[in-house]
Amino acid sequence: MAVGTNNPYYYEPSALRKWKKGPLSPYLDGFGWRLYECGYSPGVGQAYIRHVSYLSQWLGQQDFKDHQLDERKIRDYMEGLKHHKDTVVSSSPYLLFLSYLREKGVIKKPPPSIKSEIDRIVHEYIQYLLNERGLSESTIPHRRIFPRRFLEERFGNKPVLLSQLKARDFIQYIQKHVPEYSALYSASMVLILRDFCRFLYLRKHIQEDLSVSIPMMPHWKATRLPHHLKCSDVESILKSCDRKTPKGLRDYAILLLLIRLGLRAGEVRNLTLDDIDWESGEITICGKGSKRNRLPLPQEVGKALVQYLQHGRPPCSSRHLFIRMRAPHTKFQCITPVTKAVKQALERAGLNPPHKGSHLLRHTFATNLLRQGASLAEIGRMLGHESISSTQVYAHVDMKNLRKAAQPWPGGKL
Questions:
Q1: Tell me: the pLDDT tens digits for 321-363?
Q2: Has 149 been annotated as catalytic?
Q3: Mean pLDDT score of the chain, rounded to an integer?
Q4: Of 264, 313, 320, 324, which one is the catalytic site residue?
Q5: Whether residue 120 lies in the annotated active site
Q6: Which of 60, 141, 268, 406 gives 22 a disulfide partner, CB atoms 3.0 to 4.6 angstroms apart?
Q7: 359 flagged as catalytic
């Protein structure tokens, strides 16, 4: 801690006293500790405190109180900064400080902004998915897209009258946009719009369930073999990680979880320190639908995790296993860092498979299990599949055993 002050970024009380002006000054020390806990460097921490101090002094001149601060006032302040020559305007320190004040209860959290009738309907649908259907937050952005686009195209600038909707409105929309998407994306669009119809019916916005009149898009699973890597390629991407650096330790641990346990990218992202049982050598995976699956923790994976925790993981208060390397040191906000670790490892190893996402390693894990003699039921258990039909795609990979099962052609060879 800084000598003589209660702020981790200032050693001398006189230096800190210079910035403690205006209605926001009582919160600068607490804000400094928040920045420190998130891993911001001394230079960045001091800069953020100075920016907030200037904002505080401006608020004092405008006779605003601390609890009156919001995004609108920050925008007004930043608009004034644009008139100053050579001033770099960034909203990051102000929005971070605003978030800090809201966490402390100094400022009330604003209600969700609903700008239009379409916004209100889509918001109601999303709340239904979260609260009544139990969908995870990660699936919500995708679910929001198609209902919004459909309503905007159907009603435009006219009043939104849901009671006027007919099945042909949805069918015409689907027919128009199917050519723009892949088969998988089109099937997803139809599925979401059918689900949106059921929601409208359950909420009495429409008088009949239109979803039964919208045909499903044909989408045949297991029509292609899943892409996977050879064992030599797997070892190449693991060796490509520079384990002398914190990022290399982190990426190596991530790759091992994908390769040795076949985890999904989202499952890696959501891992916490509490999910690892070091005494029993097990790890608990929170999969799709919040289903939990306990798996054995291989020694190789456990050793990589220990190395990462001891030498690669930034100090922070988060209980999530994998943390951003740059400040703020928080959990991954999405699966991008996981998929990026895979893509970068493939590039370093000089590999160029058709698909470069994390599922490539999941398919590789399942394929190796099958070739080692594991049954489809055992593979499904490891992958966290609910239905055996999800695992059957890997049966196509074992061509050697499939040839044994094939019956001879009547009449011999042609």
A1: 999 998 888 888 888 899 999 999 999 999 988 888 888 888 8
A2: no
A3: 85
A4: 264
A5: no
A6: 60
A7: yes
